[in-house]
Amino acid sequence: MTREFYDPDVGSGSTYNTDVSNQVNSELVRPVYFIEADFDGSVERLCTHHADIVMSSGTFTGAGDCLAIGSIDEPYELRNAGISITISGLDSSILNHALNTNYQDKTLTVRMGFFSTTTSNTDSPQLIGGSTLPPIIFVGRMDVMTITDSGTTCAISLNVENRLADFERTNESRYTYEEQVERHANDYSLEHIVVIQKRVLPWGQ
Q1: What is the pLDDT of residues 108-128, one digit of tens each?
Q2: CB of 169 within 8 A of CB of 106?
């Protein structure tokens, strides 16, 4: 199965897809992953490169091998397929940030880019597309975080739900006057809904 990498930030005449396709089909492939996690308004950016990478949205901290991303499943059937992300060997100060920040149900985005294999400089490789954000390969909501703290370093394992998980949850919304006013304070369209429900209308009279 061939997957097209498309960047909506560039024009239709861009050679981005062609460049990526050439890299994927070559003998040597150098992918790099970018993660953006929304921790209650504060966006944390990490990448799998060993050095920081400056992109159009901000600086992605290079976590190298300390950042592991689980396999991203693309099932043919419509079902919830989440991913797991593990960050290890980091300073314990990140532990306090993870514990004291509201992260559940916040958005996490995974992007996949490629370094050019035409340059031999591994310390400062050339990223295809430059500072433009690479295409999104997964978007989900952060669910359960498991933290292991050794005293000096910590490891964080995070489960991220696919948005399809929303279809598995019970929708508690009801067409009632109270809920309508709570959502829209000046909307009184359901004010008489209870009266209508109890009204008996004999047919033919």
Answers
A1: 999 988 887 766 555 667 888
A2: no
